[in-house]
Structure formats: structure tokens, C-alpha cells
Amino acid sequence: GQDVMTAREVVLETPDAVAQYVADFLMEKACAAQGVFRIALSGGSTPRKLYALMAKAGYAGRFPWDRTEFFYGDDRFVPADSPDSNRGMVQSILFAHVPVPPENIHPMPDRGEPDDAARSYEADLQRAYGADTLVAGKPLFDVVLLGLGENGHTASLFPRQPVLEEKTRWVASCVPDDAPHTRLTLTYPAIASSRHVLFLVTGPSKTDVLSRVRAGDPAEPASHIRSDGEIVWIIDRGAAGQAEGK
Ligand code: 6PG
């Protein structure tokens, strides 16, 4: 297993290069997997380029959609047609354009009580996993995609939120005090039950928070991410704090 300090780092020239690297990584792992391949998708803006790449004919025609199950690392607790919905974003950029069986897409619930929604998503995950307790060596996810917020959050594990202390539940709701919308999020134990955690971080606005997390600053929620498998930082030169062109 790995933590954010021992994780390896891949620095690429541009956000497009980051998207291409991750698309190639997912293709390689999904094609090599025996049987079902489970991915937890990240939201926000960084992964949009990745999802657009995956929707292109040359890629979509080769990816094993029929044996890949798509879950979400987090979502805002808003209707799918809201501009803030991660589920809505992935549906419009990727799923609307590729031959993924609808039953392979597992969006987070977007109505009712947040805690009930978290419980029902957890049940969805347990059905997919085939058990209700996580076992090391039997990862829940093949790949978990994560972003990094400037306040050190990842998924919807926000600073000062009770969800940061959650050690058994796989999914929880949270109401960040520094972000709009109630959220649903995978918890640290659920994310740790993975073969590969990929952090996608681009742009100079992330340089400071990235260096704090890479140093393991405990004040940053992302610093506490672990994987039973590997963690890889896939960043561009902007986020790495390296001026362009050098
Ligand atoms: C979300 C994401 C969140 C995101 C970070 C970074 O629902 O917003 O899951 O964790 O990865 O906020 O967002 P950007 O990629 O937009 O910088």
C-alpha cells in the first residue's frame, strides 16, 4: 500500500498531456483486467479533458465498456440536470457518446435525505463488491480518480468535516462550510480499497496546496488518502510550480 508521500509523481507538459496519460492508463488497465473493471470517477473541472478524450471514436471504439463499472468518488447533492452535478457533467461529456451499458453506470443518488442517499449508495457498492466489509487484497476499485481542491479537499472530504473521522462507512454525506451544496463522498477506507489511486492536478493555482499535500501536511484532507495498491500524482508543470518552457 501507499500514502501520498511515498507515491510516485508523473509531471507532464500540459493539462492535455495529463488527460492523454490518464486515458492511456485506464485503457491499459481495463484491457488487462480479468472480468469486471471498477472505476470511481472524479468531478469538478480537471477531469473534463479526460472524459472528452475517452469519448473520441478512436478511444471509445477500443475501451471495454461492457465490462467496466463506473462509480463516483463524490457528487454534489443536486439534481442530475444541475450545472453543478458531476453525474450530469460525465453524462454529457462522456456517457452520452459511448456504448456503455446503462446498467454499468452507478451515479450517486440526487434526491431524498443525504444520509439515506449515502446508505443506499453504500449498498450499491456492497452489491458490486459482493460483501459488506472491505478486505485488504480484495480491492473495491481498480482505479479511483481524484482531484485536489485549493483548500486541500479531495473527493468531498472537506476540512473540518466529521467525514474525515469515518473509519467504517464507505459513503457519507457532508455539508462543507467552505463550498456550496451538500455532498456525498466516498470515505478514506473506501478509497483505500483500490489498486490504483490517480490524483489529477493541473494549473498553477494548485502549486501551493500540492506541495503541502506532497509533504504530508496533516491539515490537508488529501494528505490522509491511502491505497492498498499504488497512488500516482499525475500533474502538469503548472501545478508542479515549474514555469512553462524551462
Ligand atoms: C468535486 C470534485 C472535487 C474536485 C476538486 C478540484 O466534486 O468538485 O470531486 O474533489 O476534484 O474540487 O476541482 P477542480 O478540478 O475543478 O479544480
From TrEMBL:
GO molecular function terms noted in the UniProt entry: 6-phosphogluconolactonase activity
Give the Glucosamine/galactosamine-6-phosphate isomerase domain ranges. 14-233
Q: What is its EC number?
A: 3.1.1.31
Q: Which UniProt keywords apply?
A: Hydrolase
Q: In which pathway does it act?
A: Carbohydrate degradation; pentose phosphate pathway; D-ribulose 5-phosphate from D-glucose 6-phosphate (oxidative stage): step 2/3
Record InterPro entries: 6-phosphogluconolactonase_DevB, 6PGL, Glc/Gal-6P_isomerase, NagB/RpiA_transferase-like
Q: Name one Pfam family in it.
A: Glucosamine_iso
Keyword hit for Hydrolase: yes
Reaction(s) catalysed (UniProt annotation): 6-phospho-D-glucono-1,5-lactone + H2O = 6-phospho-D-gluconate + H(+)
Q: Which family does it belong to?
A: Belongs to the glucosamine/galactosamine-6-phosphate isomerase family. 6-phosphogluconolactonase subfamily.
What this protein is reported to do is described as:
Hydrolysis of 6-phosphogluconolactone to 6-phosphogluconate.
Query: Know the name of this protein?
Result: 6-phosphogluconolactonase
- In its UniProt entry, the species of origin is given as Acetobacter sicerae
